[in-house]
Design a protein that fits this description.
Blueprint: E1 2-5, H1 7-15, H2 20-29, E2 34-38, H3 39-53, H4 57-70, E3 72-74, H5 86-97, E4 102-104, H6 108-113, E5 115-116, E6 119-122, H7 124-129
Helix pairs in contact: 1-2, 1-3, 3-4
């Protein structure tokens, strides 16, 4: 199943080992599901890791390569304005462009949608329990 992880899920997976974020990423590594990423999602992730978690350029480059090798990289053609927070719209765009079945997020505005077009929106716990 194709899945988009919101930035907060990716940060959790990469910064806090042993947690639910890492368990979600393990599903991707073990090829249970396929991660879908777009350049805007990756850019936001690298920005957050650099600003909030003091990751240096070398670490950020490793993260970018690791995720790019792991994920299906898509280039959304449609610009969406579904929710108020623009980065959340980038998540929706990536999911639509990558024909993802699920978005995994902790974001309340995205979770409130429950579904966008053919894409389910799940909390991390729901995603892990759906295995």
């Amino acid at each position: 199943m194709r899945v988009v992880f919101d930035t907060n899920i990716l940060v959790s997976a990469l910064v806090f080992p042993g947690g639910q974020g890492e368990a979600a990423l393990r599903r991707i590594i073990e090829e249970i599901d396929q991660l879908v990423l777009s350049r805007p999602i990756l850019d936001e992730l690298l920005d957050v890791l650099g600003r909030k978690f003091a990751r240096d350029a070398e670490e950020l480059a490793h993260v970018a390569v690791f995720l790019s090798d792991l994920a299906l990289i898509v280039a959304p053609k449609r610009r969406l304005r579904v929710v108020k927070d623009e980065p959340d719209n980038r998540i929706l765009e990536g999911a639509v462009a990558g024909h993802a079945r699920t978005i995994v997020t902790g974001d309340k505005a995205l979770l409130a949608l429950k579904r966008y077009e053919e894409v389910r929106v799940l909390a991390l716990r729901e995603y892990l329990e759906s295995a």
